[in-house]
Write a structure and sequence with these properties.
CATH topology of the largest domain: ABC transporter transmembrane region fold
Oligomer: single chain
Strand order of the largest sheet: 6-7-8-3-9-10
Distance between the termini: 66 Å
Number of helices: 24
Structural class: alpha/beta
Shape: elongated
CATH architecture of the largest domain: Up-down Bundle
Number of strands: 10
């Protein structure tokens, strides 16, 4: 059994009592459908014979009542099982997406993940009602065929002529619809990804006057999406009209044979009426194509869900973190993105309790170093150690407790500002949160909010600098050995940055800090600077020591140019003009690593 098929049946099993109720209905419903023509035939024949009994009418009424109740129960249970199945799949999918970590999540775009979480799970969750419909229809159809055989064998034999065509048509439709569903949802994900990118970059699009071009880019997948959608309906149309060719001929043939049976006394008038009803039920075998097409859609959607669930999460260890002060070491670390090396055999030692600024012209390399050092991303090669123990061997809980993060664009999670600041597996107390707000110069504007720290996040209207200060406060409220700061004050003015940095240095005294820096002032206040170039650490030392190299000074000139360039203009990095001894030069290494 394929993985997506197992996922479909696992979803059916997740519906619990509602699913059991659905399958109970799947038995009761065809039973009442099959009993109804027989009860009607008995009542008609007894009426024709002039001996209509109340028992016949009672049976007919009871069957009609049970059928009505079964139909109502089915409507309710279909909605219930679809909701439970979708909940099961979405919880499982979201848990797995979070378990994949940052590097696993980057394999899928935000729009793609959203499409799989919402649309693919919903279509897969409908598999319970589809399977029940299939079972009900199959039992009813086979029962109708058997009833025709019992009324007159020739009626059933005429019907079975269409069976080989049904088998061929069903196989073709399932293969065709399953593949088209997968392709349709893939293209829909592309459309979602492009739309989300455009929304995120709305200000840039407006400023650069490229609205029309961006609309064309976002809607580029539409023609292919339209083609696949039309192919899907064309496949169903083709299957429907081919099956429909046989239905009128088959109906006329069977009813004519039943009429001849009445003339010759083999079939009663009541059985003629029942034969017509049983013929409609038996013809459900020829109408299975639409139901099977829906099941093929469920299988195709389940494959998209399984594509994510099938990715193994990063391996985690079980070792406990020993006592230590937060020394971080990177050994021969390599990270690739789009088959391009971002970090290429990088080595770095971050002394315990010191602040190390990471500078360089390659923003992707600096971000990758921060993510790897903080345990958010597993390197493609190499080892990251925390107090002498590889991160990959540590228990995930220990890694989370040892690390704290502040990002350039923090995401506030929870219902209120208080929730966002205390967002952690071990939430800090209210006093700790307030102290962190004071440290990060955020207490004043938080106090001015309508409900202060209880203000709902949905009502916040913050500047970039205020948002960054809240992100810093969230990091400062945690106890951690290592704090990773990914350019968390890029939107804060210089004077406020000095105030915050001074306070944080006091609050984090003795805590290891890895700071992705763009400003020269940030590097100047760090104990040590790691200078990245072409995916490796070109040199380490104090800011004053590295300032003697023109290429180091050029790093900040390039970044300043990038921040002030006109919209749409690109700045080329100048050629490095002065050769500088690399870190593997022993004498230079000893000198540059000396902390003033």
């Amino acid at each position: 059994m394929q993985a997506n098929t197992r996922l479909v049946f696992g979803t059916v099993g997740s519906t619990g009592l509602a699913g059991i109720g659905m399958f109970f209905v799947a038995i009761v419903d065809p039973a009442t459908r099959l009993a109804l023509p027989a009860a009607l035939a008995a009542a008609v024949d007894s009426a024709i014979d002039g001996e209509l009994e109340s028992s016949a009418l009672t049976v007919l009424g009871a069957v009609l009542g049970i059928a009505t109740l079964g139909e109502a129960a089915r409507e309710y249970l279909e909605t219930r099982t679809s909701a439970l199945g979708a909940l099961f799949l979405r919880r499982r999918l979201l848990r797995h997406v979070f378990a994949l970590g940052v590097d696993g999540q980057r394999r899928f775009g935000a729009g793609d993940v959203l499409n799989r979480v919402l649309e693919s799970t919903e279509v897969t969750a409908s598999s319970t009602s589809v399977l029940v419909t299939l079972v009900t229809s199959l039992i009813t159809s086979v029962g109708g065929l058997i009833a025709l055989f019992l009324i007159d064998p020739s009626l059933a034999l005429l019907f079975l002529v269409a069976a080989p065509l049904l088998w061929w048509l069903t196989r073709w439709l399932i293969r065709r619809v399953g593949s088209m569903t997968n392709e349709y949802q893939r293209l829909h994900s592309q459309l979602s990804n492009r739309f989300i990118d455009a929304v995120r970059g709305a200000r840039t699009i407006r400023a650069s006057g490229t609205v029309e071009q961006e609309v064309d880019r976002v809607l580029a997948p539409l023609p292919a999406l339209s083609v696949v959608g039309l192919d899907f309906w064309e496949a169903q149309r083709k299957a429907t009209w081919q099956a429909g060719l046989f239905i009128p001929v088959l109906q006329i043939s069977v009813l004519a044979a039943a009429g001849i049976g009445v003339v010759h006394g083999r079939v009663t008038p009541g059985e003629l009426i029942a034969a017509q009803a049983y013929l409609v039920q038996a013809m459900g075998l020829l109408n299975q194509t639409a139901i099977l097409a829906r099941f093929a859609q469920s299988l195709g959607a389940a494959k998209r869900v399984q594509d994510v669930l099938g990715l193994p999460p990063p391996r985690s260890g079980s070792r406990r973190l020993p006592n230590g002060r937060g020394q971080v070491s990177l050994r021969s670390v390599r990270v690739h993105k789009d088959q391009r090396p971002i970090l290429d055999g990088l080595d770095l030692d971050v002394p315990a309790g010191r602040a190390v600024a990471v500078v360089g012209t390659d923003g992707a390399a600096k971000a990758a170093l921060a993510e790897v050092a903080g345990g958010l991303v597993t390197p493609d090669e190499g080892t990251v150690l925390l107090d002498g123990v590889p991160l990959a061997e540590l228990a995930p809980d220990d890694v989370r407790k040892a690390m704290s993060y502040a990002f350039e664009r923090p995401k506030l999670l929870g219902e209120t500002v208080e929730d966002a600041l205390a967002y952690s597996d071990t939430p800090p107390g209210s006093q700790r949160v307030e102290a962190a707000l004071r440290t990060c110069a955020a207490i004043d504007f938080v106090q001015r909010l309508p409900m202060k720290r209880r203000t709902p996040l949905a009502e916040l209207r913050l500047s970039g600098g205020e948002l960054q200060r809240l992100g810093l406060a969230r990091a400062a409220a945690r106890d951690a050995r290592v704090v990773v700061l990914s350019d968390p004050m890029s939107s804060v003015d210089t004077a406020t940055e000095v105030q915050i940095t001074t306070a944080l240095n006091r609050a984090w005294q003795g805590t290891t800090r890895i700071i992705v820096a763009h400003r020269m002032s940030t590097a100047a206040r760090a104990d040590l600077v790691a200078w990245l170039h072409k995916g490796v650490v070109r040199a380490c030392g104090t800011h004053e020591q590295l300032l003697s190299f023109p290429d180091y000074r050029a790093v900040f000139q390039i970044q300043r140019s990038r921040r002030t360039q006109p919209a749409g203009e690109r700045v080329r990095d100048p050629e490095l003009t002065q050769e500088m001894p690399l870190v593997d030069d022993v004498a230079t290494t000893i000198e540059l690593w000396r902390i003033a």
